[in-house]
Amino acid sequence: MNQTLHLGLLGRDIQHSLSPSLQSINGELARINIKYSLLDLSLRETESLLASNGEVGSILALDVARSELHPIYHGLNVTTPYKERAYRAALELTPQAQTLKAVNTIRWRDGHLIGHNTDSDGVLMSFGELGLDQGCERAVVFGTGGASRAVAYALAKIRCQSIIWISRDRERGEHCLEWCASVSPRLQVAWICADDPDIMSVLRGSTVVRLNREEIRALEWGSVEVVISGAPPLSKDQWATLEERLSPSLGRRFGLQEGGGLIDLNYGEDRTFGLRSHAQKTLCHYEDGLRMLVGQGISSFQWWTGVKIDFKSAWSSLCEVIK
């Protein structure tokens, strides 16, 4: 293909992103000319872009720093904090986006916005690379955003039986329990407040039930095989405090069994330092989110172009770039 395909990443504070490198690699492997930009936009600018036909010219507040952006884009990846906003803006949604209620990949067709989600593809590919695709019984998931829902969806796909969600916002946590009931009714799910483990809700049938302290004390949690964080980066001390606070409910290391794994959906030395350091201190096997990035990125690329990229080829090439 001689024509250049203009793609980009829409988000906020995204200068750390490896998506430009990854999608350039995908383009080289597919023999497609790719130009991938970072669109670090405000909320107002994002809403204007999503309402357009992919035309950056529709953004009212473009400044000199963004003068290199292309006038129009074939498709975009979407990251924090705009996944749910893109979901609401899309006039057409793929089944994956409808299920996850978040959009991380978009394109325009005939003047209207189509939303897709490849996060669960990325999680499943990373599970396969880590040997988790054969299934696990119990898991802990930090965070209640789009990426964390993708994790829960992937866990349901590999026949996980029980998920404990941990976050600060009770309303969002209970929405995740209700979402689990609609996506995988057989899942046993609970939500624990990260700030106070005496605040807890569980799903019974399709009903969210708020437990009192006596009911919480009577619960018996089994050990978990994997702990996955979709939360923003925290410091080593913050993770240590969180583990201590939750240990009466979950046990040491958030209930992680010997030989279990701790997966951080963040990547990059600075963004993973806190959880990586805590994992080393508590002797947990640790993986960052780079495999998920590659998996969701090649799935997005296939949705845009129809070309399937080999995971191992993209992975090895990206590792060479970031050495």
Q: What do these coordinates show?
A:
- The chain is α/β, with parallel strands linked by helices.
- The protein has two domains: 5-117 and 296-321, 3-Layer(aba) Sandwich (Rossmann fold); 120-288, NAD(P)-binding Rossmann-like Domain (Rossmann fold).
- It has twelve helices and 14 strands.
- It has helices at 19-30, 43-50, 83-89, 95-100, 119-130, 146-157, 170-183, 213-218, 236-250, 269-281, 290-305, 311-321, and strands at residues 5-11, 34-40, 75-78, 92-93, 105-109, 112-116, 138-142, 162-167, 188-193, 200-204, 207-210, 224-229, 256-264, 285-287.
- The strands form two sheets. It has an eight-stranded mixed β-sheet with strand order 11-10-9-8-7-12-13-14, with helices on both faces. Strands 2-1-3-5-6-4 form a six-stranded mixed β-sheet, with helices on both faces.
- α9 crosses α10 (269-281).
- The longest helix is centred in the last third of the chain and has 16 residues, at 290-305.
